[in-house]
Amino acid sequence: MNGNEISSVVVAIIVLAGALLSFISAFGIIRLPDIYTRSHAATKAATLGVMFVLLGTFIFFAFVENMVSLRILLGIVFIFITAPVGGHLIARAAYHSGVPLWEATTQDELADKKKKRHISN
Questions:
Q1: DSSP 3-state percent helix, strand, coil across the chain (nearest 5)
Q2: Contact assessment for residue 58 and residue 15, using Cβ atoms and an 8 Å cutoff
Q3: Are 44 and 16 in contact (CB under 8 A)?
Q4: First CA to last CA distance, the chain
Q5: Which residues contact 84 (CB under 8 A, 6 or more apart)?
Q6: What is the pLDDT of residue 106?
Q7: SS3 (DSSP) at 77
Q8: Beta-strand (E) ranges in 1-121?
Q9: pLDDT by residue (tens digit) across 39-88?
Q10: CA-to-CA distance for 93 and 87, rounded, in angstroms?
């Protein structure tokens, strides 16, 4: 095996791992009970899945095609920064607009913070 074949195998493993994580994320979005747990599945697993696919793409172009792509690196950084922040903001907006928690939820830390804030004011 030469270097290109080894790189191709590594790229295939990384891209398949990313596809598997994206599938798990999609399954979690369908099966989880409320917006807060769905948001968690969408931001954690999907972000990691997309980053693995982009990393595999970057490695392929860098080692097999001998071309370094700054756009792919920027895509990785952009996804890494924006997806978790967007998921957090969506969940926080849902909470403040009154979307109920799942009935089996055992802890609501924001409710405790709201009570403390109203008592201190």
A1: 80, 0, 20
A2: no
A3: no
A4: 70
A5: 43, 44, 47
A6: 74
A7: helix
A8: none
A9: 888 888 889 999 999 999 999 999 888 899 899 999 999 998 999 899 88
A10: 10
Share above pLDDT 90 across residues of the chain, in percent, rounded to a whole number: 44
Q: Residue 57 has what pLDDT?
A: 94
| CA distance linking residue 114 with residue 11, whole number of Å | 48
Distance of CA 93 to the CA centre of its chain: 18
CA 82 to each of CA 19, 48, 60, 75, 87: distance values in angstroms, whole numbers, following the listed order: 20, 12, 25, 10, 9
Q: What is the mean pLDDT of the chain?
A: 86
Of the two residues 55 and 2, the one the predictor is more confident about is: 55
Compute the Cα dihedral for 109, 41, 84, 97 and give only its sign.
negative
